[in-house]
Amino acid sequence: MVDARRADVPVLIDGLQYSNWSEAIFRQMNAVGLACVHVTICYHEDFRETVENVIAWNRRFEAYPDLIMPGRTAADVLAARDSGRTAIIFGFQNPSPVEDDIGLVEVWHQLGARFMQLSYNNQSLLATGCYEAEDPGITRMGRQVIAEMNRVGLVVDMSHSAERSTLEAVEISSRPIAITHANPAFWHPALRNKSDDVLRALGQSGGMLGFSLYPHHLAGKSDCTVDGFCTMVARAAELMGVERIGFGSDLCQDQPDSVVEWMRNGTWTRAKDFGEGSASDAGFPPQPDWFASSLGFANIVDGLRTVGFSADDVARIAGGNWLDFFERSFGPAP
Amino acid sequence: MVDARRADVPVLIDGLQYSNWSEAIFRQMNAVGLACVHVTICYHEDFRETVENVIAWNRRFEAYPDLIMPGRTAADVLAARDSGRTAIIFGFQNPSPVEDDIGLVEVWHQLGARFMQLSYNNQSLLATGCYEAEDPGITRMGRQVIAEMNRVGLVVDMSHSAERSTLEAVEISSRPIAITHANPAFWHPALRNKSDDVLRALGQSGGMLGFSLYPHHLAGKSDCTVDGFCTMVARAAELMGVERIGFGSDLCQDQPDSVVEWMRNGTWTRAKDFGEGSASDAGFPPQPDWFASSLGFANIVDGLRTVGFSADDVARIAGGNWLDFFERSFGPAP
Question: B228: domain range?
């Protein structure tokens, strides 16, 4: 495996992946120097089903102790970096593992979850998803759950939520929130990308945006260039502040198309939903050639320097900002 | 036990109860001639917990075969009447037993459920509850689930839902829906009571309203008179049509106050919610003396005659309308 690490990037962090986990993928993470990946352990699963996904990760930690380790704190990320491994942080793209029981918020923090989206495309018990026709904002239960997440140190993630719900989450949450995987709509006006209003509110409140490498979120989709991507990062840095941005690739490496169909449809509909795709283009879109795996982060780091970021800013964007955010966010409220 | 049956009421039906079930309560139902009671088997329970409530009812059917029997069709109600028993129909006040799995709609019909509220006070995955600040209407999943409920013969109940969601449910559902337990807001403007717009839409679409005897839904609350109640019924009959109304007493006989606290708070909040009550009046309100148990239906039947309803109309309101509605609603879509 090529060593793609960059000496000018002290900590490299990916704010979201949902790959078809394997030794080969973990070795790519190590090779590029990823000290941490936030991995999705729930799209539609309920409490018990998500526990099964924790068990699957526990088996992986046992099987590949030289490649990966559990990540629950910023210190774990530094320990992973120092031993050449990748710390794995758990998160949910849907609040379904909390079901309708606010007591499960703390239980999930105990089990290692550190991010939870308040909604995934559809209306949830807490907030509205970006595919609903109407967005009434944070619900009664949502206000209670945000307070509880703030208390225990489970980060609110609004990547798949609708605009008003997202702005209200920024406002209601007493601690900064995250949009772990999305891009600015000014660059590519996809339903999942975020308005200037949202990005500005996120930046001003001390939150974080992770830039997505999922083709439906990229200008030019699969044909997007690394230069185009890095130019967008520079504009976002001006809008939000260079301390408020990082990566959240949304990489779904080696997944069959049945997985994206399940992501979109779960068990909530009998009609077929195509999400960001369409009937004629229903599967996973091909990744840009410069980001086919985690190794592509080396290309992005080069690209960020090319568009003019200083070495310090590249280090921030590549992982320093996420590390600071983890430090502030994952413990109990002060 | 007094025989409180009325010869002029061929079928007496209560469209909702959640009592602390006992032999004494079943004997009162039989004594007043209740051929059918729709009982709530879920306020906050998930699929598995609600199955536990089905098991509890299966044990009651076994223990009291001379008093109660399962009710799944209009024919079951007539069989109960003919044998002097009460048919028990299952329903949910919250769609939580369907979780996020549309396949559970048909499973619940197979297990005997015949009514399901799309929301209970709060926002659900399907619709908005009457205590939310905003009501965006029926959600994406809600539209799918209504179609599936229509297909299998599970009745949409909007008793605890917010106004816009309710009007949209009437519109979206291809079969008439019900509001099993609420009163007109023109009589008592409680949050749970229904506007003229809702009542008119419900009546015109062939739906049903069950009049509540829960004190928070009554003008004068616990001091409401039977004459006041029956005068309200007469006004509602003019608004909706005398074929569109029945009873849905919301009787919670012999329940401790811990039950109303659980109804309001479930596990969704860490702050205390008082619902229709208040911190200083948190428990179940006392029933009017003329409706302390199912035996009170005899007083209401008298009252309906006193305010001028014909014997035919009394028979309709007391149960004939619900029976017709069950006949049209509980089987698969034609």
Answer: 12-329
